[in-house]
Amino acid sequence: MSDDVSVVFAALSDPTRRRLFEQLLEQPHGRTATELADNASVSRQAIVKHLQLLANAGLAVAVRDGREVHYRASTDAAQHASVWLSVRASAWDRRLAVLEKGVRDAQNSKTPTSRRR
Amino acid sequence: MSDDVSVVFAALSDPTRRRLFEQLLEQPHGRTATELADNASVSRQAIVKHLQLLANAGLAVAVRDGREVHYRASTDAAQHASVWLSVRASAWDRRLAVLEKGVRDAQNSKTPTSRRR
DNA sequence: TTCAAGTGCAATCAATTAGTTGCATGATAG
DNA sequence: CTATCATGCAACTAATTGATTGCACTTGAA
Predict the structure, then answer these.
(1) Which residues touch strand C (CB under 7 A)?
(2) pLDDT greater at residue A103 or residue B82
(3) What is the pTM of this model?
């Protein structure tokens, strides 16, 4: 589970974490774990762990400012994951199209009279 | 973890499962758990569980043919997840662009002499 | 300087998960 | 009909995970 893709998908598989990620996305200047914990139903420590996991996946970055640590979103990892998915989805669709065409051609050669004029 | 998005990301967060998904993508006619288990380092039962999880996430479908069950890929869920990610990534990038423009404008109004002519 | 606020660390716990093994069921080729 | 092959089901184990709690450390403000 330690490769790049895995950690990103794993990070996004938890609703609490997705929620945090979306909160970060709404806040260009970032949010601290303590702030985020106020709006959440779980403890600050739980939030911290989630944020660190998001950061580890490349979905967030932590920036220290005095005694506060501001987490802000980062979208490179998200973009990569999105591409990973869509590349495969479209490869599949292409493959299906080829297959379908093959079936159609076979049909046409079997019953040439039914061919589109 | 039971919502649509969660199960898709969770399904894709496991390397073994991603490997299986990719094998299904290469095989338009589908593969049985037994076939897939031959190329894998884990037991057939493990493969079955992975395939069922993929199916549950909408990344695969199981089609029974006599005593065999063929699993084939399905890309709707992948496409949805991909969109989920890219929508958020681009919203963030837009937000950053606006922010940046704000900073630029402020700079210009402060030092009007440096304004582009 | 003192003290409160924000964070970091570690131990612990319950639930989930990836994997195994053993055996039962069901379909098909001889 | 009867082996046999593919699948299904159940119990079990070890590792991981989401969450909690208590306490120590660091920083900033009064």
Answers:
(1) A 32-35, 44-45, 48, 64, 67-70; B 1, 10, 13-14, 16, 41-43, 45-46, 49-50, 53, 66-67
(2) B82
(3) 0.88
